[in-house]
């Protein structure tokens, strides 16, 4: 592609590519939470894809904002300050896109700092902040469909596929959560430790101690004295 055509290409597709990448990040993030089907290695792979697509979303987002400002489709103030130009009409939709951008950056930052939150025992706070990606995705959908020019057919189809992918991933996650055994239930490989046979062995009375006189006779005949 000619360099002169790159700004025009990003002007038309940068926002869509950012949304598609964000959708992939959300879907792979949901997949990576599975513990019933995926093995630990598969979960690590899903987390890697989740992070890679999130980085792509950030890159396309920066390109989208830069091109829109450079082409005078919006102002720097409107791109940085949500609803700086207004809260109704196109200005409100641009402000919604700015909010989506900040939420995406927040979700990405908390994802990079996950270990720091876990080390301080703030897993619940991390989940809440990282969950801003869902709000960013919803705001990006509304912004993309209404803020700019009338979307082409392939753009509308891309947005529909994004909605379908996230909805499907959410349904699968809820279904897996319902199938997950309750907390405290014995796992299959622990059945040998919790079954009736193990309980009988555990509750069986201990063998009575051997009389001291018997130990003395055994020691006198040369047998080892096990009481020492």
TrEMBL record:
Annotated segments matching region Disordered: 179-228
Protein name, per record: Ferric oxidoreductase domain-containing protein
Residue stretches spanning the membrane: 12-31, 52-73, 93-116, 128-146, 152-175
Keyword presence, Membrane: yes
Organism for this UniProt entry: Streptomyces olivoverticillatus
Taxonomic lineage from the root: Bacteria, Bacillati, Actinomycetota, Actinomycetes, Kitasatosporales
Keywords: Membrane, Transmembrane, Transmembrane helix
């Amino acid at each position: 592609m000619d360099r002169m055509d790159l700004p025009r290409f990003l002007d038309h597709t940068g926002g869509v590519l950012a949304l598609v990448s964000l959708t992939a990040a959300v879907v792979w993030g949901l997949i990576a939470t599975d513990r019933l089907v995926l093995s630990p290695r598969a979960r690590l792979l899903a987390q890697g894809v989740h992070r890679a697509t999130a980085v792509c979303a950030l890159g396309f987002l920066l390109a989208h904002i830069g091109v829109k400002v450079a082409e005078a489709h919006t102002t720097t103030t409107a791109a940085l300050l949500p609803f700086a130009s207004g809260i109704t009409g196109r200005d409100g939709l641009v402000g919604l896109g700015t909010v989506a951008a900040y939420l995406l950056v927040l979700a990405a930052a908390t994802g990079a700092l996950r270990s720091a939150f876990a080390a301080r025992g703030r897993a619940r706070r991390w989940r809440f902040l990282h969950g801003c990606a869902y709000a960013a995705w919803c705001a990006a959908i509304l912004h993309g469909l209404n803020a700019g020019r009338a979307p082409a057919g392939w753009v509308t189809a891309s947005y529909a596929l994004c909605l379908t992918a996230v909805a499907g991933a959410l349904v699968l996650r809820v279904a897996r959560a319902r199938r997950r055994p309750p907390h405290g239930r014995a796992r299959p490989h622990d059945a040998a430790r919790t079954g009736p046979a193990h309980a009988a062995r555990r509750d069986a009375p201990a063998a009575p101690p051997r009389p001291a006189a018997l130990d003395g006779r055994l020691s006198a005949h040369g047998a080892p004295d096990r009481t020492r």
